[in-house]
Amino acid sequence: MIYHRKSPKRVLLIEPEYKVKYPPLGLMKISTYHKMRGDEVVFHRGTNASIRDQNWDTIYITTLFTFMWKSTIETIKFYQRNRTNIKDIRVGGILASLLQGDVEVETGIRPHFGLWEKVDRLPPDYHFADGAYEYWKNNASFAYMTKGCPNRCSFCAVSTLEPEYVDFIPLKHQLSSNKRDLILLDNNVLASKNLSQIINEIKECGFAKGAMYGNAHRSIDFNQGLDARLLTEEKMNLLSQLPIDPLRIAFDDIKLKKLYIEKVRLAHKYGLKHLSNYILFNYKDTPEDFYERLRINIELNAELGLSIFSFPMRYIPLDAKDRRYISPKWNSTQLRGVQCILHATRGVVGPKKPFFERAFGKTAEEFKYIIGQPEEAIFYREKMRPYSTAP
Q: pLDDT tens digit string along 331-347?
């Protein structure tokens, strides 16, 4: 139970002005917490002196990825200016947790580590921004039905931030009645022993397959992706009862090739035709196997009549303060070449074979040739250098 204060406080929520798709869920829940206590809450993105210099009892600053270090630290320091007590500035989130000591050295503030338990289970405040900022998915509720992940992948921070796996979290109180769609942010929902209960509650909340919101179909996105190693036929049958769009299956390692293809075929069997996946690169992979993973999706699209969109994700170490990391099996020219291609495709690898081959090449050898060229040659290669000249 959260009681109203006799003397309401003024609370400022700050998100650094880095590029993001989704609203800051942590701040949305902190907003709920303070409004339930009768406090005044204001949200702002970026830096603003007129807002900073008002009389605030507490300022919360969220953080995201560690490679956003520069803009994040600049934002924290900006809101420290002209304040007599930095203890009323609270910093949390992913960067703050993973680089807790570094943030303290740089700013004098000891950040909160991990989840704020009493706030984490509260419903998000979907009105906290009052329409002042547009995010990519404004027509969706955001929720978790599990927490953590039993896997301890070396490229992932989940086991550090959420070390205990929670099998089931009720959904209903996390939803907004004014949102059509649902984005579930579970890191490994298929690991839950209560998956059947999870699916049933999702359907009871109005998200069964074919469900409508007004004149539009509702959709669900398990946004963090599903673990192919845990995707049995029984679980696929359960998932097929939901309006999933898209079904996301990670394909981070070429060693999972056989398993990945098997699960895509299983999805097709159960009528799930709109798929998406995250493709990690610049980790332990090579340019050749990165290309092969992309190519596999193109071939599956053609064979099964699917629509698989790939989202390449460049690996950055969990403590990196910028994006400059280069793995031993890549070089800077190649990584810049991939970035040039993805800039033209807006970060997405679509399902059409002709376009894929124009962008990435017809073979792994041609792909390596393309990404080894200067930027101008990559962007304008159809005019400057016909594909036939590539080895």
A: 999 999 999 999 989 99
Is 4 part of a structural domain of the chain? Answer: no
Q: Which amino acid is at 255?
A: K
**Domain encompassing residue 172:** 139-226
Domain end position, chosen among 196, 226, 256: 226
SS3 content of the chain, % helix, strand, coil (to 5): 40, 15, 45
pLDDT tens track for 293-307 = 999 999 999 999 999
Q: Is the pTM of this model over 0.90?
A: yes
52's CB contacts (< 8 A; 6+ apart) are 78, 79, 81, 82
How far from each other are the two terminal CA atoms of the chain, in whole angstroms?
Answer: 68
Task: Tell me how far apart the alpha carbons of residues 156 and 167 are, in angstroms, rounded to a whole number.
Answer: 19
Collapse the DSSP code of 141 into the 3-class scheme (helix H, G, I; strand E, B; otherwise coil) and give the result.
Answer: strand
Q: Which region holds residue 13: left if phi is over 0, alpha if psi is between -120 and 50, else beta? A: beta
Q: Is 332 exposed, middle or buried (0-12, 13-18, 19+ CB in 10 A)?
A: exposed
The answer to whether residues 171 and 205 touch, using CB atoms and an 8 Å cutoff, is: yes
Q: Are strands 10-15 and 307-314 parallel, antiparallel or unpaired?
A: unpaired
Find the helix or strand (DSSP H, E) in which 95 lies: helix 94-98
* CATH number where 41 lies: 3.40.50.280
How far apart are the C-alpha atoms of 166 and 36, rounded to whole Å? 26
Distance separating alpha carbons of residues 224 and 158, to the nearest angstrom: 11
Q: What is the rounded CA–CA span in Å between residue 321 and residue 47? A: 21
Provide the number of structural domains found in the chain.
Answer: 3
